[in-house]
Amino acid sequence: MLKLKMTFYSALFVFSASSTAIAADSDSLDLSLQELMNVEVTSVSKQKQLLSNSPAAIYVVTSETIRRSGATSIPQALRDVPGLHVAQIDSQKWAIGSRGFNGRYNNKLLVLMDGRTLYSPAFSGIYWEVQDTLMADIDRIEIIRGPSAALWGANAVNGVINIITKHSADTLGGYGELGAGDYEQGFAGFRYGSTWSDKVTSRVYLKGHERDSFELDPNDLESDLLVPFADAGKDNSWQHLQLGGRIDIQLETDTSLTLSSDFYTSKMQQAPNIASTDAPLYREYYTDEVKNDGFNLLSKYTKALSATSEYSVQTYYDYANRDENLYGLSSETVDIDFQHQLIIGQNHNIVWGLGYRYIQDELGSSPILESSEASSTNTDLWSAFISDEMMLVKDELWLTLASRFEQNDYTGFEIQPNVRLMWQLDSQNSVWTSIARAVRTPSRLENNISANALNIPPSDVAPLVKVWVSGNDNFESEEMVSYEIGYRFIPASQWSFDTTVFYNDYGKLRSVSESDSTIDFSTFPNYISQYVLFGNSLDGYNYGVELSSLWVATHSLQLRANYSFIQSEFGGSLNQNTDAPEHMLSTIIDWNITDNIDVNFVWRFIDNNNVISQNGTSMKTIPSYHSVDIGLRWMVTPDISLSAFGKNLLHPTHLEYEGESLQFPYRVGPSYFVKATLSF
Question: What is the pTM of this model?
Answer without folding.
Answer: 0.92
